[in-house]
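Let us work through a complete example step by step.
Step 1: write down the sequence.
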Amino acid sequence: ETRTGPGGGAFVRAMSESRAISLLSHYLFFQDISIRDIYQIRQALEPELAASLAGQVDPADMARLRASLESYANTARDAEEERQQHLDSLNFHLMLAELSGDNPLLCFIIRFTIQVLSDLTIYRRLYEPATHDLGQTGCRFHAELLDAIEAGDAERARRIMHEHMLSAQAVMDTQEAQVRRDFLPET
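Step 2: predict the structure and record it as tokens.
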């Protein structure tokens, strides 16, 4: 930043996390990132995050995480509600990342991948055609994961998150393929 006047000049200042994510997202916008690319990262990191949280989440944060499940516990009525449920489900993962406060790099990378996935979901309208049970499936995984975290069972938490990532990727791959088919010109 620059300041004028006495004592002014050019100064280096810290970049906010949101600005860093925005710049990286802009860069990747032109790289043709796929759902598979995002889930490769998520499958590597999020099961380890879940395992690291086992037995470490205080009751207030556990209650907040459980309360967040309500927004996507029921079947979506339409594509717009499914879009919102998908974003709420991703927010659950952000909440988990924020609880890993002792590793700011892990938190940043997970936050970034979730932001890219959210952007792709919206830009490519991957919530259409609606599957309507996507939120419920995620909610079941999230509830089981919270049970494992609360019980302090790191291996179970890791396994549940891994299964969740595989399941979510399969759904999102199908959605992405359907959207691409819809854009193919008729011959």
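Step 3: interpret the result. The first strand starts at residue 2 and ends at 3.
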